[in-house]
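Structure, all two chains, one model.
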Amino acid sequence: MSKLLNKLFGALLDKPWESEQAAIDNAHEGKTFNLSVQKSAVFIVFGIATVLFSLVFTSYLYTLPPDQDTKYLLRPNLLWINTLILFFVTYFFNKVTNDLEKKDTSKVKKNLLIIGGLTYLFLFGQTFFWFQLLKSGNYVSTNSYFANFYVFTALHGLHLFGGLFFWGIVSSRVLKLEQNKILEQKKNISALSIYWTYLLIVWLMFFLMIYIFNDSFIAWCKSLIS
Amino acid sequence: MSDEYENKTGYQAQSSETISSGSGGGSRTASDIDYVRPAEVTDQDLYHGHSFITKWVFCQDAKVIGVQYFLLATFTGVIGLILSWLMRLQLGFPGAAGFMTAEHYYQFVTMHGMIMVVYFLTALFLGGFGNYLIPLMVGARDMVFPYLNMVSFWSFFVAVGVLLASFFVPGGPTGAGWTLYPPQTILEGTPGSGWGILLMCISLILFVAGFTMGGLNYLITVLQARTRGMTLMRMPLTVWGIFTATVLAMLAFPALLVGALMMTLDNVLGTSFFMPTIIQAGEILEYSGGSPILFQHLFWFFGHPEVYIVALPAFGIVSDLISVHSRKNIFGYRMMVWAIVGIGGLSFFVWAHHMYVSGMNPWFGFFFATTTLIIAIPTAMKVYNWIITLWRGNIRLNVVMLWCLGFIVTFVNGGITGIFLGNVSVDVPLSDTYFVVAHFHMVMGIAPLMVIMGAVYHWFPLVAGRFLNETLGKWHFWLTFLGAYSIYFPMHYLGFIGVPRRYFEMYDSPYMTSAVGMNEFISMAAFIVGAAQFILIFNIIKTLKTGKPAGSNPWKANSLEWLTPSVPPEHGNWGDKLPVVHRWPYDFNVPGAKEDFITQTTPPSDVVGTEVEKT
C-alpha cells in the first residue's frame, strides 16, 4: 500500500525544473506502474465498480425499514449453490494463472472453457432464482429488500456479462493458438482472473451484508438507542 | 523529416563533441548528458482506416474522436443556448413567445441545465480536449484502447439522440428541473413524467457507460503510455486537470447511474427507492418506504464533483495558456498540481451543501459548510499563482490572453459568491433565488466557457493549421465578456431582493415592479451574448477557407503537441519515432538561452549554459 501511495503521491514532491531532478527524470521509461495496460484497466474498473456497488449497499441500508421480512433470501436456496459455482470459477482461474506462471499450457484451453461454462451456469442459476422469487410473489416492487436484491444481482450479472464478453475474445484467440504460443495471452488471462476474483468478493460482501444487516439487526440497533 | 523539425524535437542523433556542462561536473560529451534509456515498451499497433467511414466516422484516432466530441457537444450546446433564449424571452417579455406555456418553460429549464452541464461542458472538456490533447501532450501514438475510445464516442452520440428524442415523445421532455428530484419528477402534473424522464434516465445511463470507456482510456494513457522522459511532474497542467477530472468522473458518475437506474425502476416497475407513501390527486399511490433525500444524496454525490469535472480541466488549460502567452513559467507548478489533486479529493466531501434546505441534520450543515470553505484554499492558491505568473511577464495581449484574463476575473466573481452560499445561514434565505443562478452560471458556466474559447483560439492552429481571425476574436470576446456581466451581475441583485428562480412568471407579486425592467435588460443582454457565439462559428468557417497559415509551433510553446512532424498531426502523431522528453514544459525565458522558449524535446546539449533558478 505504502508503495502504491509513494508511486502515486511521492512524485508530487519532485521539482522538475531543477537540473538534478532533470537528470533523474531523463531516465524515466514513461510508465507509472509495472503493470500491463489490461491489468491497469481491470484495476480502474474495480475502483468504479466498488463505488457503484457501495452505493447500492448504501441504498439498501438507507431504505430498509425494520418491518420487512428479510429471512427469505437466507433460507437454504439456489443462491448458496450459485455462490459455490462462483467459487469454482475463481478456483479454475487461479489454476490457469498458476499454470501460466509455470509455463505449463497443457490444460489452459480446457480450463478456460470450464470457466466460461461455469460462469454461464452461475448466471443461469441467478436468473432461475429470479423466476423462483417471482413465482413466490416477491417482485421488484414488493418491498425495498427485494428491490435492492434485484438491482444488485442485475448489476453483478451485467458485470459478469461484460467479463464474459472479454473472456469470449481471449478464449477464441487462445483456442486458435498452438500450445507454445498460449503464453502470449498471459496478460489478458491474468487480467480476467483478477476481475473474476473481484466479482466473487463483491458477491460475498453482498451476501454477508444481507445476512448481517437484516431486520433483526436493525431492530436490535434501534433497541440500543431507544 | 526537416532539419528544423529535428532540431526542435531532438530526434537527430546527438553530436559527440566535448562540451562543458552549465551545471558543473566538468567535461562530458553531448551524448553523455543527453542520454536517455532505450525504449522498453513496444510501440503501439494502430488500426488505420482506409475508407471515408473508417477514417472519419467510425474512426479510432483519438484526434478525430476529439473533434467528433467537440462538434457534437457544440451542437447540443447550441440547443441549450436556444432553450436559454426562449426562457429569457419569457422572463423578460412574458407572453412574447405565444406558444410558451408554463410546462414548456419548465421543460426548457430542465433540458438547458442538463445539456449544458453534462452533454456540453463535460463532453467538451473531457471528450473533446481530453481525446485531442492527452496522447499528443504525453507523447503517445494514440489512446491505449482506440476501439473502446470509438465506442465511447458513439455511446455519447446515442445518448444525445435519446435525450433529444424526448422532445418528440408524448408529454415532451422532463420538466422536473435538471436535478430531477423525486417524487415530483415521476408524479403526474410534472411535464414529461412518463416518457420524458424515462428517456432522460436512459440517456444518462448511456452517457455514463460511454464515458467510462473513454475515461479508462484517458487514465491509462496518462499513467502507462507516456513517452520516455515524460514523468508525471513533467506533464503540462492541462493533462493534470483532465486526468484528475477523469478520476473524479469515474468515481462520481456511478452515483448518477445508480440514481437514474433506481428512478427508472420507481417510474416503470413501481419500486420505492425514492418514493415515499404519497397521495396524488386524492389517490394514495402504491409507493411506500422510499426516500427522496436518498436521491438528493446520490445526485449531489455526483453533482458537486461534476462542478470540478468541468473546472479542473479549465484550471489546467488556462494555466498553460497563461504561461505560453505571458512567456513565463507557471508560478508554483508543484502547488498547482497539489491544488488540482487537493480540490479533486475535497470535492467528494462537500456535496450536501446543495441540500441545506432539505431538512437534514443541522450538524451535517456544519460539517459540509466547513469542508466547502476549506476547498476555497487550494482554489485561491491557483488564482494567486495565475496572477503571479502574469506579473512582469512578457504578456501578449492577444485573443487567447483576453479569454484567460476574462476567466480569472469571472472565476473570482463566481467563487466569492460561492463562499456566501457555502455558509448555511446565508444560503438558506438565498436558496432558490436568482442569486444562486447567477453564482453557478458565473463559476461553472461562463468561467469554463471562457477557457474553452481561449483554448479554441490557442489550439485551432494545431487542429486546422491556420490562425483564427484576431479581429473577429476580439469582437467575440468583448461582446461575450461584457454581455455575460450584463446578464449575471443584475441577477445577483434579483436574488437579494428575493426573486425566486424556476418561476414561469411573477404574476402580480411585488417583484414585478422592481424586477421587470431588470429582467428585460438581462434578456436583451442574453440575446446579444448568445448571438455573439456565432461569430466564432463564422470565424472558423472563414479561417478554414482563407485563414492565415500557422505553420509549426506558431505560439513558440514548449509542450509536445506542437512538436509533431506534421501540422495538423497525422494518425500515430509522431512519424517513425516517439519523442524523447528532456525537460518540463514551462522553460520560458530561461537565463542563458538563445530563444525565449525551450521545447520539452530539446536535449541539454543544445542549451548548455542555461540554468533555471533553484527554489
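Confidence is low (pLDDT under 50) at residues 1-26 of chain B.
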